[in-house]
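Hey, can you fold this one?
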Amino acid sequence: MIISITGGKPKLKDLAESMIRYAADLLMDKKLIKKLTVDLEFSRTLYKDDAMLAEIDFDDRLKKPREFTITVDSTVPMRRIMESIAHEMIHLKQYATGEMQDTDRSEVVKWKGLDINLQQWEYWDRPWEIEAHGKELGIFIRWAEHHNHSKESWTQEQYV
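Sure. Predicted structure:
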């Protein structure tokens, strides 16, 4: 996997890269991981007027894209940044494996072979968001324990 990171301080970049690699190893097979390119961009302004903490982008004309850009709000606490990267890595897995595909119709996504009309599903009820929100904390905790960060104060931060 090729990873490039724009923005953020050196410590943040190191933590982010280790999260990307850790999540990829948990979620995908090694053959697929070798084919991926991930550009991570930290932003201080992108989400000021929105509740989003992160997003993933890719060439949506491809059924199984291999190049992704993840943008993360760097103004939130470090723990939330790492959880957001884990969340977006789950979406990356969904797209890279073909579980989820964008369609020619802007309001329709293909999820595991089924057409899902986005206007008919609340955000929290969408199956890909259930998976991503359901796994992000577990990936964060496992990553923190694996990399000996679990006793650091920033991993214990509470946020609203």
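The radius of gyration is 15 Å. Let me know if you want another pass with a different chain boundary.
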